[in-house]
Amino acid sequence: MWLNKPTSIAQAHSARQLAKNSARSCDWGHAREYVEGMWRMLQQDKPDGHVLATGEMTNVRQFLERAFAEVDIALEWRPASTKWLRLRVRCLPCGSRSSIPPPDGSRSSAGDPTKARQKLSWQHKNPVRELVAEKVREVSSTGRP
Region entry Disordered: which residue ranges (predicted)? Predict the structure, then answer.
């Protein structure tokens, strides 16, 4: 889910969906790094299973706050609830709705990249704050995620 330019669009379904799920956490990582990890897997003599992950969890609320901070906008959350934004935003989802973890959080766990680090000498390089900053710059310059 990547943010388009923060704008006031009342009917932004994906923004409502993100705000509703603000407490859900994800292991956000950069595709470029995962592709490198997959390439390293393919270089192995013997196939084996590896987890490519950052091992760090960031919830949707933190992700949104970082993204808007990149364009000098502070998000205000209603005091009674962390589920809704006062500021209306337009968000463009990346992937399908099924990529949003279920409400019970059963899929909200950080991956353990230990084996990939040990066997493939692979590890993620960019923390989520750099990933967010890069994506916001990209969307700001191109107008698309």
Answer: 94-126
